[in-house]
Amino acid sequence: MGTSRTDAGLAVGFVLLWSSGFIGATMGTALVSSATLLAWRFAAVTALLGLWWLTFRRRRIPLRELGVHGLLGLLTQVGYLSGVVWSAELGVPAGTAALIAALQPIVAAALSGPLLGEHTSATQWLGLVLGLGGVALVVSGDLAGSAPALAYTLPLLAMLSLVAGTFAQRRLPSALPLPESLLIQAALSTLVFLPVAVFTGDVAPPMSGDFWFAITWLVVLSTFGGYGFYWAVARRGSVRRVSTLLYLTPPTTMLAALLMFGEPVTVEGLAGLVVCFGAVLLALRSPRELSASRATMEPCTATPTTANPGPPNPSACASATSSAPPANWPPRDHARPRPRSWRTSWAARKRASSRPRSRS
User: Fold this and answer.
1) Which has the closest alpha carbon to 103: 142, 67, 131, 140?
2) Residue 121: is its pLDDT beyond 80?
3) Average pLDDT over residues 126-149
């Protein structure tokens, strides 16, 4: 009984904390640009992990590990989060971004055949097609909002960047423990986002409680909480269990966005969730058909061994197919005055989206 309660508690914690990243992105980008938000988020993570490393570890990290986790940080942190957070800045609903990002296990399983030479079943391909159809159904219901149509490609590119990081980690295995690998990735992400924020003239954070609440939310809940619960669930369960729980994050995010921001849950959105859930059942319905996905994600959940005494490697499963953001990243519209709180900013955004748009 105790074990089942623990597993249930870990599952609930994982779904809630993994979903918190999309909510935090919406809160933060209502106050500052995506580059500023990410720069300060990773600066805080780097400072906390750096203090831990100086206090308790202080051991040399091999040059190869620095290179491996630098590359993986570009894909699983910079590429993934820049797409998710920038889309939030442009007005993409948090639930929609979460749904697109949640396609990662199916895409990784389907692509493991042509990229890694592993078996990909017809059922997995059908699941991928149905999942993409479900996302298209959700996006079609959101196009009447304030976000431009191209903004919906950003979560897709972010998800593909995470998939690329998964395959890169498969080719570049590492025995570095979780805290140190995350420290390397966070430090590199800070070095990427901080100059971008300086270049755009938007690096100084607002001296408001709402901004630092958003940063604390992202650091404590999304980074440390999301990672921690992911590995706890993975070590006690299986890849199939983690993948299935990942698909509970879109409805959780949609509900949280409804309660916090008033984002409506449309009929198209509900239908898209049902279609995507059916796609998951197809892709993960049997152990044989799970083999490609399991092989792709295995480094994320490998338990410690004598050769690898540390915790599971996080690189392929961090919370654009290229490692760099688009050339016009971030948006240059930084002259607009920043609102005093994310609540008033979100209300203004909703009022703007409700106005009829002129047709050219």
Assistant:
1) 131
2) no
3) 75
User: Which candidate, 246, 293, 286, places its Cα nearest to that of 120?
Assistant: 293
pLDDT tens, 200-228? Answer: 878 888 888 999 999 999 999 999 998 88
Q: Does the pLDDT value for residue 306 go beyond 70?
A: no
Closest CA to 94 of 218, 278, 251, 247: 251
pLDDT of residue 240: 59
Distance CA(207)–CA(297), nearest Å, equals: 41
**pTM assigned to the model:** 0.75
Q: How far is CA 186 from CA 71, 101, 323, in A?
A: 12, 20, 15
CA 303 to chain centroid, in Å, comes to: 23
Sign of CA dihedral 141, 347, 343, 147: positive
| Distances 356 to 58, 144, 145, 352, 359 between C-alpha atoms, Å | 59, 9, 10, 9, 9
Which residue do the tokens 């986790």 mark?
Answer: 69
CB-count exposure of residue 13 (10 Å: 0-12, 13-18, 19+): middle
Q: What is the pLDDT of residue 29?
A: 94
Name the token pair of 345.
């900013």
Choose the most confident range, by mean pLDDT, from 98-112, 142-156, 209-223, 298-312: 209-223
For residue 32, the SS3 value is coil
